[in-house]
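Retro notes (design track)

What went well: tokenization of the new backbones is finally stable.
What didn't: we kept losing track of which sequence belonged to which structure.
Fix going forward: every design gets posted as structure first, then sequence, in one message. First example under the new rule, 361 residues:
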């Protein structure tokens, strides 16, 4: 009798599948916007575009985008002065009326999130042109939408192309760049939480996404001394890291490689004190504390953030210590299906100790 006749040894048909969407073209460098026509010639998204900018970013880069595409594409401008359901409806209507075949988002996090949501709702491609490197949303297929109960993460389109002009990004306020660094460095704790959920809850994990996410955080920690205000080389390093972080999320099919307890803490803090700090700044603070809970090298994370110029204490963000404690305790209520170290039963006493630890020399 052959082994083929024994059922237990027979191979089962493999039916697992996952659709991974990644940018087709990623251009990072000096005067990258000038090469936008070449990018569009390569990806061929159509001839008519809705160009979404902010009031300030129109002057920073939006007008330049319109200028380099003039005569070759039909560009309809749209100003996203805020991000809420109302402005999303207006943008979608503008896209439909103009017959837009693709979206161009030129701006910071709010504008890029607006563009990717409108792209998703209209089911047309989206090109990301960030004017600041404040968080890893420039590449990801998730968007942050403010609500009355705090910010929520919603599904959106990842960009079909990314054009990041490091000259423009280096001229943005350094606080934005430092926030983007903190967001990526917090990947360290995000993947520790993912691995914890895998061990304790059997959650599916992607080792490839974990490795890429960890490597991305390590790049910024190792090069933290090079990330200085106004330095284009530092901006180049940060943007490449943000792109890699976004790719890790696309590979995973979720934000797990870049969002763990530190992000749940951040969303909880945002509910308590909306707009109190930048997204990445809060995540950096959360990463120090959650790394401590994981028993990892939290001092290395803190030192890297200090070198970059990111805040490492509530006092620097003008947030009362008591508010940080409440955010730590209520983090478990944010996306309860996403298990992290903050879902293991942290006490008020422990939370207070974590906050005091942030001030240790």
């Amino acid at each position: 009798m052959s082994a083929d006749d024994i059922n237990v040894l027979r191979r089962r048909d493999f039916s697992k599948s996952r659709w991974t969407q990644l940018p087709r073209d990623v251009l990072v460098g000096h005067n990258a916007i000038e090469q936008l026509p070449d990018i569009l010639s390569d990806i061929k998204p159509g001839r008519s575009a809705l160009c979404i900018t902010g009031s300030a970013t129109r002057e920073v880069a939006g007008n330049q985008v319109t200028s380099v595409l003039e005569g070759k594409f039909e560009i309809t401008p749209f100003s996203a002065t805020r991000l809420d359901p109302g402005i999303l409806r207006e943008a979608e209507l503008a896209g439909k009326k103009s017959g837009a075949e693709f979206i161009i988002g030129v701006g910071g996090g709010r504008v890029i999130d607006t563009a990717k949501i409108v792209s998703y709702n209209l089911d047309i491609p989206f090109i990301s042109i960030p004017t600041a490197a404040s968080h890893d949303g420039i590449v990801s297929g998730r968007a942050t939408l403010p609500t009355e109960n705090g910010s929520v993460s919603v599904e959106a389109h990842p960009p079909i192309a990314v054009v990041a002009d490091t000259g423009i990004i280096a001229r943005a306020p350094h606080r934005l760049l430092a926030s983007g660094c903190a967001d990526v460095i917090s990947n360290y704790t995000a993947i520790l939480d993912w691995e914890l959920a895998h061990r304790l809850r059997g959650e599916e994990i992607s080792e490839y996404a974990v490795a890429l996410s960890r490597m991305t955080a390590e790049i910024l920690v190792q090069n933290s001394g090079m990330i200085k205000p106004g330095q284009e080389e530092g901006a180049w390093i940060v943007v490449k890291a943000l792109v890699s972080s976004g790719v890790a999320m696309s590979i995973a099919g979720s934000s797990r490689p870049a969002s763990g307890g530190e992000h749940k803490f951040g969303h909880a803090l945002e509910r308590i004190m909306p707009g109190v700090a930048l997204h990445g700044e809060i995540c950096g603070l959360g990463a120090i504390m959650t790394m401590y809970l994981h028993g990892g090298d939290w001092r290395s994370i803190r030192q890297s953030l200090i070198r970059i110029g990111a805040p490492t204490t509530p006092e620097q963000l003008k947030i009362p210590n008591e508010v940080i404690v409440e955010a730590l305790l209520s983090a478990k209520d944010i996306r309860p299906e996403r298990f992290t170290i903050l879902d293991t039963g942290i006490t008020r006493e422990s939370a207070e100790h974590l906050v005091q630890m942030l001030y240790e020399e």
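Added context from the reviewer: The two ends are 72 Å apart (CA to CA).
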